[in-house]
Amino acid sequence: MTLSLGWLSALVAGVFSAHVLQKLCFPYFWRDLVFLLKVMRYGVKLELFKLTSSVHTVLDRFIQQAQRIPNKPFVIFEGSVHTYRDIEQRSNRLANVFLERVNLRKGDCIALLMSNEPDFLCVWFGLAKLGCSVAFLNTQIKSKSLLHCFKCCGARTLIVGSDLVKGLDGILSSLLEDNIQVWAMKSQSEHTQVHTLLDKVDAASDQPVPAVLRATTSVKTPNLYIFTSGTTGLPKAAVITHFQSLKAAAGFWAFGATEDDVMYIPLPLYHSAASLIGIGGTIELGATCILKKKFSASQFWSDCRKHDVTVFQYIGELCRYLCNQPTTEEDKVHKVRMGVGNGLRQDVWQEFHSRFGNIKMCEVYGSTEGNLCFMNHIGRIGTVGRSNFFYRLLFKYDLIKYDMLKDEPVKDPNGFCQRVEKGETGLLLSKVSALSPFFGYAGSRQLTEKKLMRNVFVKADTFFNTGDLMAEDQEGFICFRDRVGDTFRWKGENVATTEVAETLGQVDFIQEVNVYGVEIQGHEGRAGMAAMIVRPGLTFDGNKLFEHVMRDLPAYARPLFIRLQEVMEMTSTFKQQKFQLVQSGFNPSTISDLLYVLDYQQQNYIPLTDRIYQSILARELKL
């Protein structure tokens, strides 16, 4: 009896010691394990699709939900409730119109230029029911970029929202010359060559088109094209397969959302966050979403209270705008329990918690076209994701040393990249494999190759270059540090410096231009700045430059600051030197070059004075 008691006491002591050791040395072990097992369970389902050639797509899931919960609100938009049955039947009507009147066929690519509204979903689903792939066009892009988007994804048909038809005036003739048919979500059209859809939808059948049209046997089949600035040049069409759509649709579920949640989606549907994670995630759960045409900081919390919102999508700027709103007694009066998004700065995160309550903020890291995703399921402030031993077994990624001055990876004597130590900042690379494929961009193999690095650690290995500098601490939390190369982020959009530079280069007085992003205190991302050399014999014309950027560049890509130089600095490999320019910023008291700032009121680029500089830092001047 004494021996048994001694053995039992030793067992209890051992278990207790192991528990204490786990809490001290591996405090996140069980939470990591449970989260990873959940993700792996979903991953196994996707792998079974590959083996059985029987793919249950996001659209199939929507149709299933429409049969299971037909009367449940799916989308609430500007006070109108649209049930799962409503969206299903209207998308059927559109599918029948596309099939019978527009003569679309399985495999066609259709460009969609629409603002956030329920018909965006109905058109998207209607096209998908025919087996068509859909290219989501950014509603802010201008003529040259818009025409380029058609060419790279091979779309021959454009469907445009009623509120965006006038924006086509400058390029409609070019579209028609390229034999691209244009259909507007209107009942009548001022343009004789722009066809109308709404009048035909009303007369169409709401019966489903044959299911065989949407059927696919491979998760690798492209179903969407989502445009990204990537790292260089004009927008690139990232290929989105059913595999990527299905993975993104599991995001809300992975973070613990359920069908009882109400999602708030204020982000543009042409981006993957709102469409793939937001709408796809709502469908996967059978939940309800509140869709906003455009984010409004003043309406956000009243909307959340009115609709009992529990989960919202964000980008870092959105949360900062909310923190900048006047405080009220109702700041913590809401049912929101979770936010899902990316780009949330640590200081804004802390202020957001203090102001609006202990809402779990779930950061997601991953580019539209990338093959790697980090998810901060722990909710650690200031981190974009979490890694551990189990995660590294499944997803192969590395942080390598990067020389910011030379703008290139640091190589060893054998020509291979070098890994950084824990806690050090490095360029994030993700290994391309069967488990983590990279589907690239439509239209050009060369564009896809530019995002790949080969012979990184050994001969013949291949990695996806994220272009992001990250750091991983001793506990496995991952922090975003900066972007490298020719891209920066402003107003929630990626800005390709090459595209902006090419546009500015068309101005007659500009001889050479170098575009980059500079940090502004209190603002997420980087604001556009252009260092330029004026052609001999000509002078800088701020008014002419203003007119040019207003006409040819979207708002987020317009350079806010101009720096006139006599000589353009170059790297040792004859690239334009950006690092020193980025570091020196836009302070007129420390920069001897002439500086100008974009002024919308005067419709001009005006001299950047110390007074204007201070008003920008004090947030008195709206950017």
From TrEMBL:
Q: Which residues form the AMP-binding enzyme C-terminal domain?
A: 499-575
Q: What region holds the AMP-dependent synthetase/ligase domain? A: 64-387
Cited PROSITE patterns: AMP_BINDING (PS00455)
Coarsely, its chief localization is: membrane
Please identify the protein, giving its name as recorded. Answer: long-chain-fatty-acid--CoA ligase
Please give, as recorded in its UniProt entry, the membrane topology of this protein: Multi-pass membrane protein
Q: Which UniProt keywords apply?
A: Cell membrane, Fatty acid metabolism, Ligase, Lipid metabolism, Lipid transport, Membrane, Nucleotide-binding, Signal, Transmembrane, Transmembrane helix, Transport
Tell me what organism the protein belongs to.
Answer: Cottoperca gobio
GO cellular component annotations of the record:
endoplasmic reticulum membrane; plasma membrane
EC number(s): the record gives: 6.2.1.3
Signal sequence residues: 1-17
Q: Which Pfam families match?
A: AMP-binding, AMP-binding_C
Which GO BP terms apply?
long-chain fatty acid import into cell
Highest taxon of source: Eukaryota
Family membership, please give it: Belongs to the ATP-dependent AMP-binding enzyme family.
Question: By which gene is this protein encoded?
Answer: slc27a6
RNA-binding among keywords: no
Q: Which GO terms describe its molecular function?
A: long-chain fatty acid transmembrane transporter activity; long-chain fatty acid-CoA ligase activity; nucleotide binding
Q: Decide whether keyword Transport is in the record.
A: yes
Q: Catalysed reaction per UniProt?
A: a very long-chain fatty acid + ATP + CoA = a very long-chain fatty acyl-CoA + AMP + diphosphate; a long-chain fatty acid + ATP + CoA = a long-chain fatty acyl-CoA + AMP + diphosphate; tetracosanoate + ATP + CoA = tetracosanoyl-CoA + AMP + diphosphate
Q: Where in the cell is it found?
A: Cell membrane
- Which ranges form a coiled coil? none
